[in-house]
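Pasting as-is:
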Amino acid sequence: METPLDTMPPANSSSQATGDRWQVRLVIGAALVAMCLKFYCAWTTIGSNDVLIAFNFGRDIYNLGLDGMYHESDWFNHTPATGSFFCLSYTLAKELSPPGTHNHGYFPFILRFPMIIADFLVLLILLRIREKTGQPPVWALVFFALSPVSFMVTGYHGNVDPMLVFFLMAAAYFCAMEEHPAACGLLFGLSCNVKIIPILFAPVFFFFLLHRGGRQGLYFLLASGLTCLVGWSAALLGSPELFLKNVASYNGFWGIWGISYWLGEMPWKQFHTVGSFDLPPAQVHVVMFLKLLIILGVLVLAWTRRKCRGIEYFSTLALAWTVFFVFAPGIAAQYLIWLAPFILLYSPWWYLALTVTSTAFLFVFYNTISHGMPWHYGDSKLWMFPIWTPWTNLPWLVLIGLLVAKVFWSAQPAIESSTIAAQPVATEIGG
């Protein structure tokens, strides 16, 4: 009995499956190597001064409670969940320390441990997306796994940013690849409980799901809104004004990035103040204008690209991040991992350019604040700013180039009027 040709498996299907398995093993192997290096760095170093700041926050929350922390310090610009994580990390360090020893020797590793795991989970999401779409290419995934930016931020710096990236990536995956609005909303709400910045991208999620049915948009709003309210409830009930002032209204650090850096280089004294607090009126007005410009840019992207199909959805988020970073009045060094996986899915080559330039900037930054190699503890001081702030222009210019290229030269994205299930695609290494 003959088998119809259209039901016969391709002659090379077995070899393709073997090749795909080896590609996955290569990527995971690179990720495991990177994870081990990060664990070693986290165990043998203190990290940046953010680690000691988190330690002090955790200790004070342990002693004063979360509400007391909001009243105690204007510098506490974290969500209740992140504050609770600092407190838990402090408590674990305190319990694990032998009697009579200083407990903060364990804190840097405890703080960074879940962030290193979060990096690995982001890579697994990218592998799942590749299984469904064939993108990104394997060489880009290996480069992402071994990214020096990720090593410096997650392994050395010490903050909660990698967890934000994981939850936001997971939310985007369930939104675009699985079209599961409730899971997407829950994960998006968790990302907003790590830091508040993801709320900027709520319209991107909402309009995308709304286009696929009013109920999907509603489920997303309910799940994300409830998760945010539950997570923020301790602050909203105990210190609503301080929460809105310290967390929701945080403007970043003026004078070290992009437009604010170049205004600070001009001869106009009203733009020369560097910092986050007590800015002159001229700087406050510029900050407000730039924030409104970012919000408008994200809203335009969210609406005009609401019909984009599966993987193009990640490109929408990549472009939204690009708008944020191009016009942001101020950032911190560790923020450069926020957009990395989204830029990778938008374009591996733009991701390569961004990673190379970000690596150059971050190396100069950490090497400066750590007083040269080997790094053990980095404490950023105002007198160091002229040494490393010019290097922030490298990744900033790459992002400007990406935005200009998208506006003037990129083709229109593929769109769909109905749901199209993503299908597995086998590709060659480097494809």
